[in-house]
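To assess whether the prediction recovers the assembly geometry, we first specified each molecular entity separately, as shown.
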Amino acid sequence: MNSLGNLLKNNMRKSSMVIALILIALLFQILTDGTLLKPLNITNLILQNSYILILAVGMVLVIITGHIDLSVGSVAAFVGAVSAILMIEMQMNPWLAVVICLVIGALIGAWQGFWVAYVGIPAFIVTLAGMLLFRGLTLVVLKGQSIAPYPESFQKINNGFIPDLFGGESIHLFSLVIGLLISLVLIALEIRTRNNQLKYRFEVSPTWLFYLKLFSVFAAVNFFTYVLSTYRGIPNILVILFVIIVIYAFVMKKTIVGRHIYAVGGNLKAASLSGIKTKRVTLGVFINMGVLAALSGLIFAARLNAATPRAGNLFELDAIAAVFIGGASAYGGVGTVIGAVVGGLVMGVMNNGMSILGISIDWQQAIKGLVLLAAVAFDIVNKRKN
Amino acid sequence: MKAEMVLLEMKNITKEFPGVKALDAVNLKVKEGEIHAICGENGAGKSTLMKVLSGVYSHGTYTGEILFHQQVCEFKNIRQSEELGIVIIHQELALVPELTIAENIYLGNEQGTNGMINWNETIRKAGELLGKVGLKESPETLIKDIGVGKQQLVEIAKALAKNVKLLILDEPTAALNEKDSENLLKLLVELKKQGMTAIIISHKLNEIKQIADAVTIIRDGQTIETLATDDITEDRIIKGMVGRSLSNRYPRRKPNIGNTFFEIKNWSTFHPVQSERQIVKNVTLHIRKGEIVGIAGLMGSGRTELAMSIFGRSYGKKTTGKIRKDGKLLDLPDVSKAILEGIAYVSEDRKEYGLILMNDIKQNITLASLNKVARQSIVNDHQEFIVAEDYRKKMNIKTPSVAQITGNLSGGNQQKVVLSKWMFSDPDLLILDEPTRGIDVGAKYEIYTIMNQLADHGKGILLISSELPEIIGLCDRIYVMSEGEITGEVDRSEATQETLMKFMTKSRG
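The predicted structure of the complete assembly is given in tokenized form:
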């Protein structure tokens, strides 16, 4: 029989970052006298962090393959600049411009991936060069100045909300319904996974803990959408974010492509001798990063409603920090999309909470640095004990 | 030779790893001024014993007692054992290639004062030590510029610099050619005359016979016996090592050999970096259905390179030659094509090239053939589990679950996972490169049995091995390689260690 302490320890280890996130959120909820979880603030939190979370999703793939991408902030800025030229100066249709921007992101990713995968230059150097190169090109494209404003339809990417199909008055009914549906789907998936695990006699957590987990998931999702719906409902950006997270989590966990990415990071030589086209996988991961960096740049531009030369500054470090806080290994082969998202949220909640408390930017940086170090140290010490 | 002093005594040493008892009450007594050999099969526990002795496994992680000069020793790390003059030279040399000989000799033991290195002193002393070990190189030569044989001598010089009393050598001649080995052995005898004591771990029984004053035999983590000079014969040692006569080390099989289905003609490949060096030269060979074909050869003879270049050109540049399977000409530009055409290659280095140690067993088993457990590129976890579970039973992989991380398994079980992976890819030709390296006797036997079963099912097997008895015991036909060429083809009935060795050392030069 498992002792309760052991049980808690095992389950804690698996979801230690989720628990850390909850604790940090609670801490700031108390410190800010309840401001943190106010509907307006939660909405803000999502809008503020969406572009970092998207970068983190791309970054976790790069880091799983054993590489790193320092250029994503610059790439985001560059793509934002190009989008301003296309939409504002050339009056191009916003959707066409978005597609062009994403293609540019893919090309940039292919450019960097080529040097990493086929020429064998360490990604650190290639993307450091990319960081300088695309920051420079951003300045060239913008001639050192900001360009604004974007067409309204483009701004909606970041500051729009999904329409309420049910015409709720003081509350956004449609958002509530979506929340309910998602929570039910999540519960169904959890049950299915557990049944399969039982079928194959894997070790599972005890029933009461499982029900507690189901209940927490249900409560968390519905609480979240409830809070959102008392403000203006689900923001558009959350929909985009949700779709990206679900797709990438699925790809990494369930598909051959995902397995190949983990294998390349886990042991390049063994992967290659197992018939995996390792160079192509690496190239693909960088192209993907380029596209997501471009998307991130677009969202940031839409949020600021301007393309500025300093956009995206230090985004790469936030994204990388999110990935490592989320449990990825700096040596490759280990990491999850969900982990990276949780890591990004930990950073986001801290930023937001500290801002509400009026802690100055300089101290925020210092504290974030310590949290990053503590999170990774905790992870490594924990693994060593195992 | 009376009143000999016992320099080292290890009493009842027991060391356990999770799930394995690596050492079980081992005893060892080494007299002052002797060369003491330790023999045993791979995995018998020799290296573990030496790691206990040198403090790699710190006091407290094992039970038992170590007496050195009659003093009880409780080493917490290597430094403490080195302070007493116990120095170990590992199989993989611990030299820094980019530093000079002198810098390596005094690495961690720098000559100088107040943190400032006295280079003149360092180089002068290093020169003296090189003289002692008979190495004619300037102390300022970089390690990467001298061969393995000379590097070995530098290691010994390094040990001498630490005032070594007891020198432990783990397979010192494994990577050396005959002349370098001979030199090294002479040097050891010379140092012995000057009063040094040495423990030598070796597989080469003729060498042991040549220089050892005593032999302790270890089998399955237990001391079997210690032989004195007069009793040292190769047969006696082998009997002690295996614990049974040699005849049943290899499972019997009645070969049922069909037609030739796989042919390689005029196969050549060059070194990937030094593109002038031809590593494999005009190799032509064939394999028949249900046949186990061996490739014997010394290290560096081009065996592995031949196999890997066939397997989707995973080695070499400017590779030329023809591969025919069932009469059809094959073009295998990459590994995935090779797998598709029914070829599998089990690498000699399972940790580096065979497994993803941080992943679990089932993921490793399906890695090379994920399409078989996936639909529209989505992996079916249940099917994967069933496949893995099936191999776990079939191959007798000892693990509580196929969700276990591969890195936690023992060498033999890891090797079974690699084999499972390639059996699942369902090849017609299975190339096995040193499939039993570093695994224990029992697991070896199981792997031989699996090979035999595969051959009985009409597969062709190409076995690369450094262990001649293994090649002779298993193969129906043996090719011998030397310096990149096939120097001989020997049928099972004519195969003896002597004939193979003759071809292995033959060169056209």
